[in-house]
Design brief:
The protein is of the alpha/beta class and about 350 residues long. Helices cover about 35% and strands about 20% of the residues. Helix 3 runs parallel beside helix 4 and helix 10 runs parallel beside helix 11. The chain binds phosphoenolpyruvate (PEP) and manganese (II) ion (MN).
């Protein structure tokens, strides 16, 4: 159940609702929005129904929610959320481009990739310092040294940095450098990690798990939101299916389902979804045409020498062409690619 407060509700009105819910043995999760505060109630709905919640001061309406996620649900928070990463707003009016190498490999490689991203018109720089690799013998990332290199790339290009955090105990460390914390597909249901990034004061890019349903993905976002952090961008990156022609199967319909179900921005990563350079631009265009609020793509100055994911890395020219195409698509859709 959810209590939607009036835009004019005072803090004391919110506190009063929370108190009444607690008296009834329930838990209340307050989600302050730009226009109105929403309070998610967890507990015995029948007991809540007995409370005069709808007539308490400042309350606009009380809604019984069919969905298991509440704070990220659009029905209770109709106005779309803008997630600011650095000074860049990720929202539903614009097309955000996040680009960078799969992994930070060296200061030179990262700097070159960052220059490529910036030169092509990307808004945010991605790059992994901690890499979730299938094989323990594969390159695992440069860890803290990688974070330092990312900070230098930000200084050089002005691009805010998105980077993955793999473990709850590393959240503070990674948050010390990052402008947004990425939760990778393999960690989408690492609940300890989700709770920890939910307590961090940084935006979160939450990738969909390899075999997660849209509902499970939204429940993962709910974990983050429940800790007080609603600056979440969802990222569809392909799911496991029987098909082996592509690395994963890009679920564009699932992306749209998620976008309809939540007020959070939803972006698409066509690099991990396809695993092949030649498929990245077509799927990026399809994603934006279907309503995605942005894309995350991998670029590398020397894909053939990349320590991870070389076959799916775009070159600088590929990225430049793609950003131009997205800008043209944006014109048709009434969405801008900032800077274009
Ligand atoms: C990544 O973006 O670097 C990554 C590892 O992606 P995913 O978690 O989607 O596999
Ligand atoms: Mn990668």
């Amino acid at each position: 159940m959810v209590v939607v407060m009036k835009p004019t509700a005072a803090d004391a009105d919110v506190a009063h609702v929370v108190e009444r819910v607690r008296e009834a043995g329930g838990q209340a999760f307050v989600s302050p929005g730009k226009y109105r505060t929403i309070i998610g109630l967890v507990g015995d709905t029948d007991r809540f129904m007995e409370l005069p919640l709808a007539s308490l001061p400042g309350v606009e309406q009380v809604v019984r929610v069919g969905r298991p996620y509440k704070l990220v649900a659009r029905e209770l928070h109709p106005e779309p959320t803008t997630v600011k990463i650095g000074s860049h707003p990720v929202d539903r009016h614009t097309i955000t481009v996040i680009a960078g190498p799969c992994a930070v490999e060296s200061p030179e490689q990262a700097a070159e990739a960052a220059r490529m991203a910036k030169g092509a018109g990307a808004h945010l720089l991605r790059g992994g310092a901690y890499k979730p690799r299938t094989s323990p013998y594969s390159f695992q990332g440069l860890a803290e040294r990688g974070l330092e290199i990312l900070a230098a790339c930000r200084d050089a290009t002005g691009l805010p940095v998105v980077t993955e955090v793999m473990e709850a105990r590393d959240v503070d460390l990674v948050a010390g450098t990052a402008d947004a914390l990425q939760i990778g597909a393999r960690n989408m249901q690492n609940f300890a990690l989700l709770k920890e990034v939910g307590r961090a004061l940084l935006p979160v890019i939450l990738k969909r798990g390899l075999s997660a349903t849209v509902e499970e993905w939204l429940m993962a976002a709910e974990y983050v939101a429940r800790e007080g952090n609603t600056d979440i961008v969802l990222c569809e990156r392909g799911i496991r299916t029987f098909e082996t022609a592509t690395r994963n199967t890009l679920d564009l319909a699932g992306m749209v389902v998620a976008r309809q179900a939540t007020h959070l921005p939803v972006i698409v990563d066509p690099s991990h979804a396809t695993g092949q350079r030649s498929l990245v631009a077509p799927m990026a265009r399809a994603a934006v045409a279907a309503g995605a609020d942005g894309i995350m793509v991998e670029v590398h100055p020397h894909p053939e020498a990349a320590l991870s994911d070389g076959p799916q890395a775009l070159t600088g020219n590929d990225l430049e062409d793609l950003v131009s195409e997205l800008a043209a698509l944006g014109q048709a859709l009434g969405k801008a690619v900032p800077g274009r």
